[in-house]
């Protein structure tokens, strides 16, 4: 049941005086339920409980933590239609998307459960002693990975389930042995509370310590700031804007004890199309990319926001066809009036830049929170000179850049900020000449897709969802797939330890 209260360990609590409501963007009205923003005292209580829970939770066996994660997945599924209805009423996203995202969330929890069933994920290594080594004896050293402590997780607006309350950040941190305090996203606080209840039910059924999980409401930045600055919090997971992620990163760095912030932020995901591909299958590519750009109303961090090719008749024709196909699609609802406002402002700011041309425009009247898609184009020189054109427009928008030649195309790629993905669309006969392009693109991105679209992030071990700043704050890690667990652990060594004091896996 949704009460609007905060979940502080096993207790629900509403001590604060600040309240807020979520919004139904489809109906353009506020939802009825009132939510109580966590007070300073409640944030502190959640952090104290997490600190105490960590002392127990870090020593609970992997197989028991796996049971906990699987139980969370079961409890989420048991929420059934109530969860789906609440999700849709708080996001404007369709039921199919809600169910798909629930499947992904449950799948992530189960894949982390599977990972920690044995201790190999801790990368145990043993270097046995050589007492008679000359000139000095070699000590016995045994190393593995240990959890870093309570983690603050910021729910993402665009993934109310898979990257929020019990999403990838929470699942990976709990799997690692770290308690989690979620700063619920205010746009879907009801969905967040339902999932939080599922986590608590699972924790109680599987005997996890009180404080292993808390869920805090807030409609402003204060709760998040207090959490990141709290001495008991030892790491942060975030998905959202560059402004928000950077602010939290700076805050964490200024603490007396700085802590890691793993923020996954903006990306325009460049797509490079060769002339041969344009000549051979421009129409098919225009359809595929019209679908990708408008998928989920463009509210994906992997949305293809930048399309590059050397100027040619074939590229001009492709850009026009893409524009026509994009505006022929039924516009869709955005997550929230503020996201829609952000989209309109940013889209218009970019569209107003010198040399930029709007390819096709949607003129019909739209319901309040619906977003008209837009395709724009500019030449490579203007793009290189204007950093505003390099910024993310979060929504169904893409900019096609017509480069003067291959050198300029490479220069543009080098000029881009760090990206989550890059895509190369090419024909077989192009392959022998793609080495320099791949090498240049690889420096700027976390993943390159060949002849596909960047939207759709497979959850598996080989996935990298991260990239050089500002795609993420630490390009050495991924936010998707089982290796996401590595963000919440540190290496630790035992030297010359008696066997009785060693953990089982290092004996
Ligand atoms: P956001 O503004 O970055 O907020 C994300 C979360 O961080 C919210 O819970 C927010 O709290 C908190 N937060 C933001 N700034 C903070 C600060 N200075 N101190 C403490 N907490 C802070 O992202 P959003 O609400 O999801 O969407 C806003 C815009 O972000 C979008 O329009 C889009 O441009 C971008 N975005 C990008 C991606 C991507 O994957 N590239 C994903 C989502 C959003 P409050 O909401 O309570 O203030």
Automatic annotation (TrEMBL):
Gene3D superfamilies: Aldehyde Dehydrogenase, Chain A, domain 1 (3.40.605.10), Aldehyde Dehydrogenase, Chain A, domain 2 (3.40.309.10)
Keywords for this protein: Oxidoreductase
CDD domains: ALDH_KGSADH (cd07129)
Superkingdom, natural source: Bacteria
Domain Aldehyde dehydrogenase: 19-430
PANTHER family assigned: ALDEHYDE DEHYDROGENASE-RELATED, SUCCINATE-SEMIALDEHYDE DEHYDROGENASE, MITOCHONDRIAL
Name of this protein: Aldehyde dehydrogenase (NADP(+))
């Amino acid at each position: 049941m949704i009460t609007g209260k905060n979940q502080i360990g096993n207790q629900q609590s509403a001590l604060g005086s600040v309240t807020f409501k979520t919004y139904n963007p489809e109906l353009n009205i506020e939802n009825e339920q009132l939510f109580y923003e966590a007070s300073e005292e409640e944030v502190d209580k959640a952090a104290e409980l997490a600190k105490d829970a960590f002392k127990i939770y870090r020593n609970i066996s992997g197989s028991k933590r796996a049971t906990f994660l699987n139980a969370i997945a079961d409890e989420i599924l048991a929420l059934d239609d109530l969860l789906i209805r609440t999700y849709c009423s708080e996001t404007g996203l369709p039921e199919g998307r809600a169910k798909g995202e629930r499947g992904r969330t449950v799948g992530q929890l189960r894949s982390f459960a599977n990972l920690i069933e044995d201790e190999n994920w801790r990368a145990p290594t043993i270097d046995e002693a050589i007492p008679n080594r000359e000139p000095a004896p070699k000590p016995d050293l045994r190393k593995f990975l240990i959890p870093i402590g309570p983690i603050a997780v910021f729910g993402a607006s665009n993934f109310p389930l898979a990257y929020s309350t019990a999403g990838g950040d929470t699942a990976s941190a709990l799997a690692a042995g770290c308690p989690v305090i979620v700063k619920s996203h205010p746009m879907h606080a009801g969905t967040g509370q339902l999932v939080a209840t599922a986590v608590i039910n699972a924790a109680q059924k599987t005997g996890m310590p009180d404080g292993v999980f808390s869920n805090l409401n807030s409609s402003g930045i204060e709760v998040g700031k207090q959490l990141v600055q709290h001495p008991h919090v030892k790491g942060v997971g975030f998905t959202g804007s560059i402004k928000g992620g950077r602010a939290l990163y700076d805050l964490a760095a200024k603490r007396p004890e700085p802590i890691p912030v793993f923020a996954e932020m903006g990306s325009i995901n460049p797509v490079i199309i060769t002339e041969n591909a344009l000549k051979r299958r421009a129409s098919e590519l225009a359809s595929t990319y019209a679908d990708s750009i408008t998928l989920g109303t463009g509210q994906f961090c992997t949305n293809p926001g930048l399309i590059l090719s050397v100027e040619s008749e074939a590229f001009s024709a492709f850009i026009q066809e893409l524009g026509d196909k994009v505006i022929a699609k039924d516009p869709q609802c955005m997550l929230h009036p503020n996201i829609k406002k952000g989209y309109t402002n940013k889209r218009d700011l970019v569209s107003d830049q010198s040399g930029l041309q709007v390819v096709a425009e949607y003129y019909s009247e739209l319901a309040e929170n619906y977003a008209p898609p837009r395709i724009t184009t500019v030449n490579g020189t203007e793009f290189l000179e204007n950093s505003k054109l390099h910024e993310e427009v979060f929504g169904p928008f893409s900019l096609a850049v017509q480069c003067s030649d291959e050198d300029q195309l490479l220069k543009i790629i080098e000029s881009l900020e760090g990206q989550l993905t890059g895509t190369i669309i090419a024909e077989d006969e192009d392959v022998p000449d793609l080495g320099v392009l791949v090498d240049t693109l690889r420096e700027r991105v976390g993943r390159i897709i060949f002849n596909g679209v960047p939207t759709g992030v497979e959850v598996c071990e080989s996935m990298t969802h991260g990239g050089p700043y500002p795609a993420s704050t630490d390009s050495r890690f991924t936010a998707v797939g089982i290796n996401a667990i590595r963000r919440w652990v540190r290496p630790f060594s035992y030297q010359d330890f008696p066997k009785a004091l060693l953990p089982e896996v290092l004996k």
